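hiii, so i know i said id send this last week but things got crazy w the move. better late than never?? heres the sequnce for the chain we talked about at the cafe, plus the structure i predicted for it. fair warning i was half asleep when i ran it
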Amino acid sequence: MTSLDQPVDVLLSDGTTVQLRPIGPDDASGIVAMHSRFSERTRYLRYFSPYPRIPERDLHRFTHVDHHDREAFVVSAGDRIVAVGRYERLGPDVPDAEVAFVVEDAYQGRGIGSVLLEHLADAARRVGVTSFVAEVLPANGAMLRVFADFGYQVRRQFADGVVHLTFPIAPTEQTLQVQRGREQRTEARSVARLLAPRGVAVYGASATGQGIGAAVLGHLRDFGFTGAVVPVHPSATTVAGLPAYPSAVDAGQPVDLAVVAVTPDAVPAVVADAAAAGAHGLVVISAGFAEAGAAGATAQRALVRAAHAAGMRVVGPNCLGVANTDPAVRLNATLAPVLPTAGRVGVFSQSGAFGVALLAEADRRGLGLSSFVSAGNRADVSGNDLLQYWQDDPTTDVIMLYLETFGNPRKFARLARRIGRVKPVVALASPARPRAPDPAPPAQSAPSPAVAGPDEAAVSALFAQSGVIRVDTVAELLDVGLLLAHQPLPAGRRVGVVGNSSALTGLAATACLAQGLSLAGGHPRDLGPHAGATEFTLALAETAADPAVDALVAVFAPALPGQVVDVDADVAATLPSVLDAGKPMVTAFLTGKLPVDVPAYSGVEEAVRALARVTGYADWLRRTPGTLPELPDVDPAAAEAAIRVDGPDQAARLLAAYGVEVVGSTPAATVEEAVRAAERTGFPVAVKSAAPGLRHRLDLGAVRLDLADPDAVRRAYAELAGVFGPDVLVQAMVAPGVACVVELVEDPTFGPVVGFGLGGVATELLGDRAWRAVPLTDRDARELVDEPRAAPLLRGYRGAAPVDRDALADLLARVGRLADDQPRVRALTLNPVLARPDGIAVLHATARIGAAVVRPDTGPRRL
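okay and structure toks below
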């Protein structure tokens, strides 16, 4: 069975889209037509002969495959096949297969060969093929480069005028890096074509100047777009003073971007017209799609399919638009009448209404933007695409995101970890998150509820783990953006506070401590209300020069009657000289206007909070990212076998494949069964209620320990059965330790996440869990162990012996690897895990298995 049961859209290196799908018998005519368009050179390099036409026998074999030993994919642009790739196993059950592909001349050099190789290798691995072989003519340098550049360890041998290639197709760190590098370049290129068009066609601008289409057209014109603006109107010859055309093709000018503000039923015709004009992308401002119900969702899917078939990407629908303040572009294809000045902050907003408010507030506060995208329904272009673009965009230094949902959470976490190393990412994420129901009453034997997963505090920690600065309000988003845009990062958490008011400096000092910052010198520097400009500036300069200070907070109260009245203006004029120390400074000047490169805040708390957010990001940058543990003893194939066979020991078998032993237990439904199980296990034993949610509840009397003989087992069984029901578990006793809990859940923001905490009702009630997104590095695993508030119990609290925290970190690394390898494992709980000075013991584990799916951000590239 192929991994590609349905067509998928993929991006090429020039940012255009094509479709890739399995070949079928109905493709015969398309294959013949493609072959007829080949140049003689392409035919010779592929078939080693002129091969002017495809014989009927070959055509039948090309288009009829079993999707196991023989597989083939076609790439189509619109309704035309432009490439085909295939593999054929060299014999029954042989692990080697021959691979080959050919691309139509007009589409060569655009990365189709690499995409085909990714998908063919993925399909081949699923049916047991471990290596590909290929034969290439020495003159076919392009094909040789496809194989050589992919990251595989290719062995070459030259014989009989042909280069024979052999290479294993198992993914490696190198092949993954190559694949992701191509992904970044293609997605960045596709966005760049949207933000720097040579010409923009506007559909839906009325001749009367009314409506959203006319508004966007006016904003394009008034902002000074440097390219051609083409109104498309069925009858008018001029719109808003510009020549109008019934079709974008009629304009006779290059049109790279189409702005769509027509009714949903008119959109298909617009897509066709824009495609005919050679547009690279659509900005669909029109509403009435997925946000309007099932019919709208169907229309939205059709819109994206039609756009991708024509090689275009889609922003929206139901969006605010896109903007680029680059003086060479000056694009305002949005509903916002005013854009902030040009700057170095890129902004992505999923919400149009929020985007309007954000642009207006950024303009008021002097925060300059490089580019802006409002994605609306986010049917195609997403925040992840913009992250890929802004990573290498030379005009963008800071990235700000407003996110309501995450279409591909694993990819977001991965990109944020990488991009955050070179550019800060600030995110205002929707606080609405699914929550699990409250646990059932203890006496019930009903199944346990779903694992709740990270709470809001833990989600903020997950953002921080990925290098993302998470904020809670629009104001805070701009607060942090201003600081990042104009100030250096702090070298540490020591803050010098200087002010002219004891109330304000005291407030600043309290705020610093509350935000986890330390106060340099132990106290703020209060200059008093009579301090003049010279004294204030000198104090700031001295504080900035202090090697024990990493950042400054300057607070200034307005002058009272009879006091010096020009201090605020004079200080504002001299502040830039203080910045020469290379340390960030935030200010809360309650009067006066500061230079734009000195972030000014309306209140002391806001200034300190912004500084604390940025300090946390600077701390993250200084930390080494860690490495993925090798874990050579794991057996993913054995885990997959365990997943396929349901049963009470499924979780134990699954974990055993990843080197985690679960202490065995035997179910019993009568007292005699319990006694026999204890005798087989060997005394002493533990007997526990088998009801989900009660197996570890020693505090509720659902567990009996250290039962040394059959009589003790009988008494324990009678007590448990009388309260919790007849079903019990019998388990060998293990040495005591600190009870811990390990969890794996699917988070709506980050995908699979691993949680760790100490066991017990109190820690569960308080939500004392630390969480990390998969994949887990060795550093992530160690931090998970040390992060819960109750973690001191593991390090030897009040004279207790410290437990083996390395063993706990190893366990977490293995659970993280399992989560990364096995997308069908939707939830996993190890509870309790007893941690001791000499190691750990996992006493119980449960797993929830889901249907086989292609997990986002895994496998070959696709949109």
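btw The domain at 738-849 is CATH 3.30.470.20 (D-amino Acid Aminotransferase; Chain A, domain 1). thought thatd interest u
miss u guys!!
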